[in-house]
Amino acid sequence: MVGSGDVRYGIPPLDLREVPLSRLPYRLRTHYRQCSRNTSRNPSGEMTMQLGAFSISLAVQDLAVSRSFYEKLGFHVTGGDEKQYLILVNGTTVIGLFQGLFEKNILTFNPGLAQDMSRIADFTDVRDIRASLLAGGIAMESDTDPETTGPASIIIKDPDGNPILIDQFFPKPGS
To answer: In whole angstroms, what is the distance from residue 6 CA to residue 165 CA?
Structure first.
C-alpha cells in the first residue's frame, strides 16, 4: 500500500502499511468499515463519487516542533522518514507533516482506502473521478493517463487555490 505521491508538489510516496489499525476500538473500526463501504448518495438520492480516506498534508517549518505540538493534541506517529515527513493519527483523523517538501497545505483523498486505513474492494477509481471533474469544468493541475489501470493520482485546486490531491494506491477495481 504505497502511495504514488506527486513529485511536482514535493509529495513523497507514503507507505500506509505502517499505520496500525489496532489502535481503533473494535466498534469504531467496524463502524467506519461499514460507513466507508456504503454507497454514497447526495440528498436527492443520486450516486456520488467516493473519494476514500481523507487527510491533510501540512507544510511545516520545523518537523520536531510540529510533532511535539500534535502529540500534545493526542496524535501519535504511525509512519514517515522522521527527517522530512511524518504521518500522525488520532482516532481516524490522519495528518501528514512535511518539512521543506511543498509550500502549501494539501487536502488529500485516497480512493480505495477507508478512513481506518483498511482497503475497500469496490470504490470510485481516480480515472472516473477525473472524468467527472473534467466534465464539470474542473481543470487538472497534475493529471494521469485515463487509459491506465494501476495506482494513479491527480491534483486539482479549489476556487481559493488550495491544492487537492486524489492519490489512489491500488489498481482500478475489476482490473
So the answer is: 9
The model carries a pTM of 0.70
Report DSSP state, residue 168.
E
Using alpha carbons, select from 146, 12, 145 the residue that is nearest to residue 4: 12
Which cell numbers hold the place of 25? 476500538
d(CA 128, CA 119): 18
Distance from C-alpha of 29 to C-alpha of 168, rounded to nearest angstrom: 21
Per-residue pLDDT of the chain (175 residues; tens, 9 = 90+): 344 555 445 555 444 344 444 544 454 444 444 444 434 556 666 657 889 999 999 999 999 999 999 999 999 999 899 999 999 999 989 999 999 998 899 999 999 998 888 898 889 999 999 999 999 999 999 999 999 999 999 999 999 999 999 999 999 988 8
Question: Residues 112, 50: contact at Cβ < 8 Å?
Answer: no
Are 115 and 173 contacting, i.e. CB atoms less than 8 angstroms apart?
no
3-class SS at 101?
coil
